[in-house]
Amino acid sequence: MFVTVALPLPLFRNFTYQVDDALTARARVGMRAVVPFRSRSEIGVIVEVVGAPDGVTAKPVAALPDTEPVLGDELLRLCRWMSEYYIVPLGIAIRSVLPAALGSHADPEPTRRTRRVAAVGVELASLVQRDEVFARARKQRAVYELLESLGGRAPVEHLIEQLKVSPSVLRSMTKRGLVTIEDEVVARDPFAWRAAPSPASHTPSAAQRAAIEALAVAGRGDVALLHGVTGSGKTLVYIELLRRVVLEQGQSAIVLVPEIALTPQTVDRFRAVFGDQIAVLHSALSDGERYDEWLALREGRKRIAVGARSAVFAPLVNLGAIVVDEEHEGSYKQGESPRYHAREVAIMRAANEGAVVVLGSATPSLESWVNATAGKYRLLELPERVGEAALPKVEVVDRREGGKGKREGGSGERDAADWLRMVVSDELEAAIVDRLSKEEQTILLLNRRGYAAFIQCAECGDVATCPNCSISLTYHRAPERLVCHYCQHTEAQRTQCPRCRGVLLRQRGLGTQQVERLLADRFPSARIARMDVDTTSGKWAHTEILDRVGRGEVDILLGTQMIAKGLDFPNVTLVGVVDADVGINLPDFRASERCFQLLSQVAGRAGRGPKGGRVLIQTRVPQHHAVRCAVAHDYRKFVEQELSGRSTPVYPPNVRLANVVFSGTTEAATAHLASSGTTWLHALLRKRPMPGLTIVGPAPCPVERIKNRWRWHVLIKAEHPRDLTRLGRYFLERFPVPKQAQLRVTLDRDPVALL
Ligand code: ADP
Ligand code: ZN
Q1: Does the first or last residue of the chain, that is N or C, have fewer Cβ atoms within 10 Å of its Cβ?
Q2: pTM metric for this prediction
Q3: 3-state DSSP: the chain helix, strand, coil percent, rounded to 5?
Q4: Cα separation of 486 and 499, whole Å?
C-alpha cells in the first residue's frame, strides 16, 4: 500500500511513502504518519491512498502514532481549499488546523501547573504616601504600580519579566508587608471559576425576534450579516440560534470572538446558557490543555467551541452554525503563513458542511457589507439599542486652533496642568469632573500609535529609533527604559544623543503611563485603571481589570484600542477619545475604515444604561468623513463615501488584492529582489495575459524594516479571484529566490493592512 503524506514544509508538493503490511490495516486518510525525510524524521498527515509510484522506490512509513485519523474528511477538504486560496503548501495549512501538541512526536499530555502569585499587601491610595514609602526604592515602586494596574494580583514571573527586576526586590517588599506572595493552582479553565451569571431572561425585541426567525429558516451554507448598532443585543440573537441548533437539533456550533480575554462578558453569557457544553479555547491554555479540549470536541463531549480565529478549525461534526462576532476585526486575519482570514474560512467551512453563518457587527467590514447589499449574504438589522437606552450623543471637540494643543517648538518649562491640557480639553475635563461627582464611570481612549512617548535630541532633532526596525522606540517610565513595540528590543534610557553627542534629550508625546500619572494628579480621589499592552501581558489581566470596572471599583478606565471591544457597562456614561486622528493618515487603504470603526465602537461603550451617555471626540480633522459619520452614527453614509474613495486608485472591496512582500537582511539585496520579482511578474503577464490584473510597485513597505529585515512590496490587483490564485501560485512556485541575505518572499492574500 502506498500513501501520499502532506508535510509541514515550505514545499508545494506531497510525498509518497510505502506502508508496510503490519500497518496497512490502520493506514487511512487523515491519520498522522511519522516518515523519514532527507536525513530526519517528520510528522505529516496521510492525504491520499495511491498506487505504486513509477520507477522510484518509496521509503516506508516509520510509524502511525494514532489509532484514529486526526483530520476528518471535512477538515481535510477545508485544508485543501486554504492551501489553494492562500497559496500555501497543504502540510502548512494542515499544521495550522491541528492542535500544536500533535505536531511533536511526544504523546500530548495535559499538564497541571501552579504559579507564584504576588498580591498587594497594603493599599497606598495617595501619591504623597507613595512618594514617602518608595522614596529610595524606585524598583519597588515600579513593581507596586504594575501590580496595582493589574488589578492587585499578578504572577511573580510576569512582574519580574515585565520589569526586569531581580527576585530580591519582591523579597524586600514582602518583608515590608507591601506585597504578599502565595502559590496558586493555575485554573485549567479560567472561566470555570468565574461566577456564572444567571441566564439572561430577556424577551427579544421585535427586531431581535425578526433576526432570530430569519436565521431559523436560513438554508444550509447561508450567510447572514447581522448589522446591529452597539447595544442592540446581538448576543441574544446568537444565543437563540445556538439554542435551536445545539440544544434542539443536537448539532454543534462555533462562536468566534476577536480575543477571548477582551470579551469576558460575551463568553459569560454563552456559558450561562450552555454550561459545560462549551469548550473555551483561549490563549492561556497550554498545548496539553488545548489538546484536551480538542479531544472533548472531537468526541462530542462538548458541542460548542468558543475562541479566537483558530477555533474555526474545531474538530466538530454535524456542524449547525458558526457565529463570527465583531466580524470587522483585523485580528481574524492570521499574520503568518497560512495568512487566512477566519471569517472567510468560516464561510467556506459552513458551505461545505451545511451550517449557517452569522457575521455580527455594528460596523461591518466593507467586504461583508458589499456582499450583503449585493444579495450574496442575507442582511439582518438591529437599528436600535434594546430597552430604554438610546445611542449616546457624540460631540466633537475641535483641537485645531490655539497654541494650547501644540507641543512642537518652544522650550519653556511646562507644569503638569499644561501637560494635562494637551491631552484633555477643558470640555472633556469638565465632563469627567461631572461624572466623578455623580459616581458614574468614564472611559478614556488613548490611541497607542500616537500616544507612544519617544525621545528626541533637542539639538539635532534625532529621534531614538530601534536598531532592528524602522520605528521610534517608546519611552517607558516604570522602570525607565526604551522599548520597541515591534520586536521588543529594550535599552536603557539614553544620556547622550548618539548622533551629535548632545545631552538635552527630551521626551516627546505622552504614553499611557504618563497620562495616567497626570490624571492621578488632577483627580487625586478618582480610582483610575489603565489597560494597555503593558498591563495586560499577564494572561488574565484584562479580565481582572474589566471585572473591577464591572463591580464599580474604577472611576476612570484609561486604555488603548483594546477597550473599544464589546464591553457592556451600564454605569459608563462618558467616553472620551483623546485623539481621534491618530492613524487616520497612515499609508494604508483601510486607515479611515479602522478609524471609523474604532470611534463607533468606543462610542458604543457609553450610555448602555438608563442614565444615557455622552461621547467627546477630540480631533484636529473634524471634517474627515470617518469622524463626521461616527459622530452622526451614520454607517451607511460612511460606507458610501469610503467605497467611492476606493475606486481611484482601486482597492478592496472594489478589487481583489494580494500583497507580495520581499524581505532580507540587506537593503540592496531586498530592493533588487523586489525589482526582479516585479519584472518576472510582468514578463509572465506578457506571455499569458490576464485581463483585469494589474501590478503596482515595487516600493519599500511603509515600515521599511522589522526585526532587522528590510521590506519591499508589490501589490497585485485582480478583478477575478481565480487569476490571483493562478498568478500567485505560479510565482511562488517558480520565481527563483537567491540563497543570500536570507531573502524571502511571502504573499498575503486579502491583506487587512499594508504596513
Ligand atoms: P451588542 O453586542 O449588540 O452591543 P449586547 O448583546 O451586549 O449588545 O446587549 C446589550 C445589553 O442589552 C446586554 O446587557 C443585554 O443583556 C441586554 N439585552 C439584550 N437583549 C435585550 C432585550 N430584548 N431586552 C432587554 N435587554 C436586552
Ligand atoms: Zn524593533
Answers
A1: C
A2: 0.83
A3: 35, 25, 40
A4: 23
Would you state the pLDDT for residue 199? 57
- DSSP label of 388: T
| Minimal-distance CA residue to ligand 1 atom 17 | 233
CA distances from 316 to 237, 241, 295, 322, 355 (A): 22, 17, 10, 11, 12
DSSP letter, residue 277: G
Closest approach atom of ligand 1 to CA 203: 23
Predicted confidence at residue 154, as pLDDT, reads: 80
> Is 122 in contact with 140 (CB distance < 8 Å)?
no
| Gap between the Cα atoms of 662 and 705, Å rounded | 11
Neighbours of ion ligand 2 (CB under 5 A): 466, 468-469, 484, 486-487, 489
The angle that helices 73-85 and 721-734 make with each other, rounded to 10 degrees, is 80
Is there a contact between 130 and 90 (Cβ–Cβ < 8 Å)? no
More confident site: 351 or 267:
351
> Could you identify the atom of ligand 1 that is nearest to the CA of residue 570?
14
Extract the C-alpha cell encoding 251: 448539532
**Ligand 2 centre and the CA of 465: distance in Å?**
8
The yes-or-no verdict on residue 408 having pLDDT over 60 is: no
Is 207 touching ligand 1 by the criterion CB < 6 Å?
no
Distances (CA, A) of 50 to 1, 55, 174: 8, 15, 66
Question: Does residue 230's CB lie within 6 angstroms of at least one atom of ligand 1?
Answer: yes
Task: Supply the residue whose CA is at minimum distance from atom 18 of ligand 1.
Answer: 233
If you search the block for the grid coordinates 464561510, which residue do you land on? 347
Nearest-5° Cα angle at 560, 557 to 566: 75
Which grid coordinates are listed for 171?
A: 523579597
Which is it for strands 319-325 and 252-256: parallel, antiparallel or unpaired? parallel
Instruction: Please state the atom number of ligand 1 nearest to the C-alpha of residue 200.
Output: 16
Is the minimum distance from the CB of 233 to ligand 1 under 6 angstroms?
Answer: yes
Which numbered atom of ligand 1 lies nearest the CA of 235? 6
- Provide the mean pLDDT of the chain: 86
**What does the alpha-carbon distance between residue 379 and residue 376 come to, in Å, rounded to a whole number?**
9
Could you tell me the CA-to-CA distances from 414 to 170, 411, 418, 422 in Å, in that order? 35, 9, 6, 11
For residue range 705-717, list pLDDT tens digits in order. Answer: 888 899 999 999 9
Question: What 3-state class would DSSP assign to 447?
Answer: coil
Which set of grid coordinates corresponds to residue 172? Answer: 524586600
